[in-house]
Amino acid sequence: MLTAVDPEEDIIGLDIDEYLIKPISEVQLQEAAEALLARRRYDKEFREYFAAISKKAALDASMSEQERASSDAYNTLEEEVTEATDTADSTLTEMMATDAFAGSRFADISDQHL
Q1: Within a 13 Å sphere around the CA of 68, how many CA atoms are in the beta-carbon half?
Q2: Are 40 and 18 in contact (CB under 8 A)?
Q3: What angle do CA 69, 70, 73 make, to 5 degrees?
Q4: What is the pTM of this model?
């Protein structure tokens, strides 16, 4: 949303991805558009990560260690979890480096949880 109105609490209920207040430069607008497009890709990668770890957690709870060790499907899932984790980690690093707003928010969260 691009607006000349300063934000108030009512923006909390709005279904928006970015709230930009005028005046805004062409460069700032371009950066915001690029960040929004990148976030669409990030969503897919993080969904894949959470899906993989959710499946693994369910199987860890329901299968014995011996069953898991002898299951080709479980071993493949473990590889998928490793790959999804690596992808999510690198995506987060990239997002923090290229999306100034997201990067500063994740840095703030990391600092609070250390």
Answers
A1: 13
A2: no
A3: 90
A4: 0.58
pLDDT at 109: 46
pLDDT 10s digits, 76-107: 999 999 999 999 898 888 877 776 655 555 55
Q: What is the arithmetic mean of pLDDT over 7-32?
A: 78
What amino acid occupies position 29? L
- Look at residue 3 and give its three-state secondary structure: strand
Residue 33 has which token pair?
A: 């558009």
pLDDT at residue 101 in the model: 58
What is the C-alpha separation between 51 and 85, in angstroms, rounded? Answer: 11
* Cα separations in angstroms, 73 against 51, 61, 64, 79: 15, 16, 14, 10
The C-alpha R_g of the chain, in whole angstroms, comes to 20
